Amino acid sequence: DTEVTQTPKHLVMGMTNKKSLKCEQHMGHRAMYWYKQKAKKPPELMFVYSYEKLSINESVPSRFSPECPNSSLLNLHLHALQPEDSALYLCASSQPYGAGVGDEQYFGPGTRLTVT
Amino acid sequence: QKEVEQNSGPLSVPEGAIASLNCTYSDRGSQSFFWYRQYSGKSPELIMFIYSNGDKEDGRFTAQLNKASQYVSLLIRDSQPSDSATYLCAVKIGGAQKLVFGQGTRLTINP
After folding, report:
1. Of B34, B44, B97, the CB nearest to A97
2. Which residues are within 8 A (CB) of B57 and not within 5 positions of it... i.e. 6 or more apart?
3. How does pLDDT run across B61-85, given as a tens digit for each residue?
4. I want to staple A75 with a disulfide (CB 3.0 to 4.6 A). Which of A48, A67, A112, B75 is the partner?
């Protein structure tokens, strides 16, 4: 059973659409992450939230807007995407850096996004 | 020099043999090291993590860390066809919340 869930599993959207990706974790973690993964490439970090505050933004274009409503939820709002944004979007969670415990990251199953 | 380097493979190993996957990293301050397995079309699955020099064993998997040589490896004993996947080495860069991934090694176990 995965303790990090993501919805939807698949999403097809046009370049003028607005959509959101959702992630929920049931691991009691206080850090959550968004990654983007293209085919045959490793995951590429986009955003990090630590204690519900944005701590890292890897210079991601503003058409991607993250939100962390509470410690177990993470959203990624999408607007005016480009076809090159088509990828697998992965959510992960861990204990925050410096929390004094292991900081292993666990990934959700991902959302396969296609921008037409 | 890339921060985390892996041989991209593909690495082909006969069933029942030991598969050896290697990874080097550039940041001497790195403290946390992870191995993820990723099946085609699926998300990465954490299979091993190691924080101290030496070996760590979990079932058929052994992670080995040598901080002096900046080298981390994953051994898979009694390889099974179900072990065929891409294996990603990831390193937590010293003093940061950020995981840096290698390019991944594609492993094929031949029956």
Report:
1. B97
2. none
3. 999 999 999 999 999 999 999 999 9
4. A67
